[in-house]
Amino acid sequence: QQQQQQPEQRQETPPPQQHAVYTIRVPPGVRPGGAFVVEHLGVHYQITASDPPREDGAVECWLPAPPGHQPAQPEVEIQVCQAGACRRAGSEAVLLEIEELGAGLLCLSVSAADGCLGACDEAPNAIVVRRGTEVLQSRLDKVEKTAALVASATGATPN
User: Fold this and answer.
1) Each residue's pLDDT tens digit, 97-150
2) Cα angle at 51 between 158 and 112, to 5 degrees?
3) Pairing of the two strands 126-130 and 76-80
4) 103: three-class secondary structure by DSSP
5) Between the CA atoms of 48, 50, 54 and 57, what dihedral angle is there, to the nearest 10 degrees?
6) Predicted local confidence at residue 115, as pLDDT
7) 87 backbone dihedrals φ, ψ, rounded to 5°
8) CA distance 63 to 18
9) ∠ CA 152-157-159 to the nearest 5 degrees?
10) What is the 3-state secondary structure (H, E, C) of the chain?
11) Rg, C-alpha atoms of the chain
12) What does each C-alpha distance from 137 to 23, 94, 98, 155 come to in angstroms?
């Protein structure tokens, strides 16, 4: 008796949902760094208000795009220093944490910085690059600090 071999069935992995940047006015009474909820395409999302706040009282955030939307390039980059003092202070773990916290955020690109960021006394450090502007973030020595960094850089609640 010969057994017929059944063809292997594969499940198709759905493509990642595309996102788009939206500018949302922060509701009155929400403090910088505070959270508020918006409804978008029938789903509720928790958004973190910018800290410091924008002059126009709005926040930019990435939310799922409507069907047919063309993807945008990442708008925010976080570069984590991997040089001497930062590495000794745990910057490898910081890089991994930020990658995990930002997983799925198409607006965010995370990488190791090309060299020392020059704030060795305040290690570990990272820079946030948005629209050509670099902002140094220091003493990223707790997960809460890296989560706050991802939230303020992207306007989205980290994973």
Assistant:
1) 999 998 877 778 899 999 999 999 999 999 999 888 899 999 999 999 999 999
2) 55
3) antiparallel
4) coil
5) 30
6) 92
7) -65, -45
8) 8
9) 120
10) CCCCCCCCCCCCCCCCCCEEEEEEECCCCCCCCCEEEEEECCEEEEEECCCCCCCCCEEEEEEECCCCCCCCCCCEEEEECCCHHHHHCCHHHHHHHHHHHCCCCCCEEEEECCCCCCCHHHCCCEEEEECCEEEEECCCCCHHHHHHHHHHHHCECCC
11) 20
12) 24, 12, 13, 16
pLDDT per position as a tens digit, 45-89? 888 877 677 777 777 777 777 776 655 567 889 999 999 999 999
The single-letter code of the amino acid at 30 is V
CB atoms within 10 A of CB 92: 14
Tokens of 42: 């029938």
Structure tokens belonging to residue 11: 């499940």
Both tokens of 95, joined, read 């890089």
User: d(Cα 91, Cα 85) in Å, to the nearest integer?
Assistant: 9
β-bridge partners, 23: 60
CB 49 within 8 A of CB 59: yes
Residues in the chain: 159
